[in-house]
Design goal:
By secondary structure, the chain is α/β, with parallel strands linked by helices. It is built from 5 helices and 4 strands, in the order βαβαβααβα. Helix 1 links the parallel strand 1 and strand 2.
Length: 103
């Protein structure tokens, strides 16, 4: 059975633990890279990551874009929405369908 994880600042991801999602609080980019590598090799199929943290480790996240698992999904944090998540969804849809039908 696959697992779901969330990474980001504690205030943004703490509530996800009540849904059974494993949380990995971090604000540090070096620690986030190590954590992402570790949990991606540990049977997690979906990794939610706050947009603010994702922007710090975008190079590392790009390494997983062509892999079937894990799916790394940016989510807004308590600091607000940057639109990064919707841009990524638009890119995925455009890749799958051949044109941007989201916007």
């Amino acid at each position: 059975m696959y697992k779901i994880a969330a990474m980001g600042d504690r205030n943004s991801i703490y509530g996800l633990a009540s849904l059974g999602i494993s949380i990995f609080p971090t604000d540090d980019s070096a620690e986030a890279v190590k954590t992402l590598r570790r949990i991606s090799e540990s049977g997690y199929a979906v990794i939610f990551i706050t947009e603010s943290l994702a922007s710090l480790i975008q190079t590392e996240i790009e390494k997983y874009k062509d892999e079937p698992l894990p799916a790394i999904i940016p989510i807004p944090g308590v600091s607000g929405n940057t639109g990064m998540g919707m841009k990524q969804v638009s890119r995925f849809v455009e890749r799958a369908v051949g044109s941007d039908i989201v916007n």
